[in-house]
Design goal:
Layout lengths: L1 H4 L3 H12 L10 H18 L14 E2 L2 E4 L13 E8 L5 E8 L3 H11 L3 E3 L1 E3 L2 E3 L1 E8 L2
Antiparallel strand pairs: 1-6, 2-5, 3-4, 3-8, 6-7
Length: about 140
């Protein structure tokens, strides 16, 4: 029985041991004083640290739009005359279509056919300064 419990003993007792350790700096300080010390230290540290924002937009000096490789026309025979379907999608860095979304519908069967076809499309991805990047594409199909 003790052999089965041996691996779990350090997991249970190490956190308890860590709680029992008291540093000399904190000895004799009240909880409020320690909290105040922590809050001022963290505030002071954050004022001087320059954190680069990864989400900031990059400036593109040389932009190339995506190039169509395989974009078969969806069969629009299911659409009624005069109807149109608008689709928005993301062309990923891999050249595949991601997250197609119907913006203007022509009915369930027409939308389904268009979405199935658009998902098979392939592109040479857009580039920003020679680096592949995602870009949004919009296409309108009409039954005329």
């Amino acid at each position: 029985m003790l052999r089965n419990l041996w691996p779990t003993l350090p997991i249970v007792f190490l956190p308890l041991l860590a709680l029992a350790v008291d540093t000399p700096e904190q000895h004799g300080r009240s909880l409020e004083q320690r909290e105040h010390h922590l809050s001022t230290t963290l505030t002071r540290a954050s004022e001087y640290i320059d954190v680069p924002h990864i989400s900031a937009a990059r400036a593109c000096e040389e932009v190339h739009p995506p190039e169509e490789l395989t974009t078969p026309d969806p069969m629009t025979s299911g659409l009624t005359h005069g109807k149109r379907v608008k689709v928005s999608f993301i062309i990923g860095t891999d050249g595949r279509v991601h997250s197609p979304l119907i913006l203007e519908s022509a009915g369930i069967t027409g939308d389904r056919r268009v979405l199935q076809t658009v998902r098979t499309w392939r592109y040479r991805p857009a580039t920003c300064n020679g680096v592949p990047t995602e870009i949004e594409g919009k296409v309108e199909f009409s039954s005329r």
